[in-house]
Phytanoyl-CoA dioxygenase family protein
Amino acid sequence: MQKAFDQEGYFIVRSLLGAEEMQALGSAIDRDEGIRAHAFDIGDGEGRSSKLSLWSHPGSDVTGMLARCEKVAGTMEKVLGGEVYHYHTKLMMKEARTGGSHVWHQDYGYWYKNGCLFPDMGSVFIAIDKTDKENGCLQVIRGSHKLGRIEHIMVGGQTGADVARIEEAKKVLELVYVELDPGDALFFHANVLHKSDRNDSDRRRWVFIISYNRASNNPFKKHHHPCYTPLHKVPNSAILECKNIDDITGKDFMDPSTDETIKPEKK
């Protein structure tokens, strides 16, 4: 995993979450209230949108245990080479027939603007539904983290990487469609170029994404995501042992109007 992360910028762990863990996660997010009540629309500049709910702190519910457990946070600490803290978690909901696309970008392309000096950051992308080409799965450019940070601009309601540079990168690096079954996870570096197409299928495509920052990379300015906050890791067993299904206390959900890197859809 370390070699893949260093050389290719990512690796996939199949069945990171088992059936019972996925059921527990589903109970926490598949409700109109709670986490989903804080969702907002992100446009793709082509008339479509996806829903996003984003929070700064893990909290003490099932989703918090997932973000703090050893096989997620502990693995990210190992591949990033040091202590990490929770930067944010988001539930991305791309609905059937209506879900919008996401343009090519690097996460560090906009985290850079938040005052993070180094790209010592990464995310864990967990499939809630089956994700494939048909319903707009994630696409990555293998090894693109070695390009360094690419300039980003606003594209529709999103922050996207320089298109001309993307096209040149695709000539020399491989484009990979990340097809996942529920419970599979992609661990990837903050400079990996990635995108997703719109969902034209009859199936929804929901994903759960947990992002981390190295403790040594504490942002030099306050912004809409947290500065260094110690992460209290828990054993993997805490996911199933957690009885807090709908307690969202302390998560600090993001108000999209405070984020300079996205433009929420106006109703």
Notes: The longest strand covers residues 84-94. Residues 2-258 form a domain with the Jelly Rolls fold (CATH 2.60.120.620). The mean pLDDT is 93. Residues 125 and 209 are 5 Å apart (CA to CA).
